[in-house]
Amino acid sequence: MADSATIIATTGAPSRGRRRLQALARQPKVVWGGGFILFLVVVALAAPLIAPHDPLAQDLMSGTLPPLGFADYDPGFLLGTDDLGRDVLSRLIYGTRIALTVAFVAATLAALVGTLLGLLAGYFRGVTDTVVSRLIEIWMAFPPVLLSILVVAIMGSGVTSVIAAIAIIDWTRFARVVRAETMAQAQGDYVTAARTLGFGRWTILFREILPNVAPVLLALITLEMGIAVIVEAILSFVGLSVSSDTPTWGGMIAQGRQIIYQAWWVFAAPLAALFATVLAFNQLGDGLRRALDPVMQR
Amino acid sequence: MSDPLTISEQALIDARGVVVAYGGQRSAFGRAKPEKRVLHGVDVVIGRGQTVGIVGESGSGKTTLGRALLGLVPVADGSIRFDRHEIVGLKEDALRPLRKRMQMIFQDPMSSLNPRHDIRHILIAPLLLHGLARDRREAEVQVRAVLDRVGLPASALERYPHELSGGQRQRVGIARAVVLAPDFVLADEIVSGLDVSTQAQVLQLLGELKRDMNLSMAFISHDLSVVRAVCDRVYVLSGGRVVEQGACEQVFASPHHDYTKVLIDAIPLPVIDPQWLGRGQRST
Ligand SMILES: Nc1ncnc2c1ncn2[C@@H]1O[C@H](COP(=O)(O)OP(=O)(O)O)[C@@H](O)[C@H]1O
Ligand SMILES: [Mg+2]
């Protein structure tokens, strides 16, 4: 047959997983964004090993020491110290723990709830869709800041409340996007083909449609992780997150703002970490979306 | 022409007065969208081993009729019997045993193949679903045989749909439609996206499969020259109604309805090129 030959010519194909990985490695955004996030994960896990000081240890004799490159710099404190003499670098390192925990757990929870509702609404439509869509509309009418304060007020401050607040507020992001994407996919001939072959609706929804929604979903989860990092920082900033003896980036920013004229670096260092982290999540999300699209791969 | 009663006795598909309307379902708050009638009482009979052409201009309801015959669109009125089983009003679960006996080949093979599944999965999953293979290994054997039958090498199993050419994809679409050994296959504009030499190959393949497997087929096309080449009977659809039907030669030779005459006059004269088949084989 005329068009058989072309397949034979390109045999010796690597396995499916391997090809996915190769596609990922070709995306600079995935490499840089993912690389930085991986670096942060290592830092968070190894914090006790790599932090030069106890992040809580106060030393009033060495307060407001400036970072490397400025007059009065102390080589023991690479990024300087705050007004209580605590090492900024060590606090920054320990701060990644809360930031990443919140990012991963909150984004995953929001994604689970939102994806499930979005899939059901987009595929079954009808009453299911009406109920989910109204719920989303009502939900989005609440100001998110007030909603998060409400959640924290009810549950008490702490990481768990912060995670719950983010998931409770942001599931709608996932539900909306997944609903629209599911509706679009459900129109596809491959879904009709699956029906004709006799597959049940749950099989069609989770085996046929979900894999096609997955790239968008993955990109969205990654973006949500960036958002979660910011929200955690904001809640820390206003004192609604963890108690003040656990170092967080938001807490450091809040503290640094008060002494910005004496020790600007206490403010600048966590802000830079926050910025870089959110940027990395966004880049990773964008890169993943491109790399996982089977048609855009080549 | 034979007596309609004897036709329906041996018919595989016997559809009477089929009415299909889109829209019109109620939303949760009771607002009913206005419904749009697309088929206004259509009768279609397809005998065993017979190929029936369904022709008509775009929007005349060909696709809707085909999908109604497969129980894929809700039918508002009328009756559709598949091998004497009434399928109108059947729930999806009740329809499942019949599903493996009626299959479909799509116009656009790219969108009808899930881009996330490789060809192996696409072909093996239906066999396992219907219990036509006991395990993956047995299914693999069957799938390789079908692939070979449609003229694709086994290496295609590892491929994803976007890695194949248009003609190869359509062969996968055909393989998927026949892998369950159905009695009836609906082919909806299946060659309109292919170039002429690939069209000829795909049509030839379909003819062979039809003969070997004793398939009944409904062949939908707006291209009457293709229908003329493959069909025993033809139904001419206009505005959701059958305006003319009959044996293929008869309808093409002496059309009664003006609409049919217009359609037939629109067939471009065949350009005879003796080198044509040979050229198709050499080019890759
Ligand atoms: N899912 C649908 N919802 C609403 N209207 C539809 C739908 N599918 C087809 N139609 C309408 O039904 C009519 C017949 O369409 P179709 O069966 O696709 O015709 P054909 O295949 O002959 O081009 C067209 O007017 C089309 O716009
Ligand atoms: Mg059509």
What does this entry look like structurally?
The complex is a heterodimer of chains A (298) and B (284). In chain A, helix 5 packs antiparallel against helix 10 and helix 10 packs parallel to helix 11. The longest helix of chain A is centred in the middle third of the chain and has 37 residues. Chain A has a single domain, classed as MetI-like (MetI-like fold). Chain A has 298 residues and is mainly alpha-helical. Chain A has 12 helices and no strands. The N terminus of chain A is likely disordered. Chain B has 284 residues and is α/β, with parallel strands linked by helices. Chain B folds into 2 domains: 194 residues, 3-Layer(aba) Sandwich (Rossmann fold), CATH 3.40.50.300; 74 residues, no CATH class. Chain B contains 12 helices and 10 strands. In chain B, the strands form 2 sheets. Chain B has a 6-stranded mixed sheet, sandwiched between helices. A 4-stranded antiparallel sheet of chain B has the order 2-1-4-5. The radius of gyration of chain B is 20 Å and the shape is globular. Chain B starts with a helix and ends with a helix. Classes of the chains: A mainly alpha (298), B alpha/beta (284). Chains A and B meet through helix 1, helix 6, helix 9 and helix 10 of A and helix 3, strand 6, helix 5, helix 7 and helix 8 of B. The structure holds adenosine-5'-diphosphate (ADP) and magnesium ion (MG). The site of adenosine-5'-diphosphate has 11 residues of chain B, from strand 2 and helix 2.
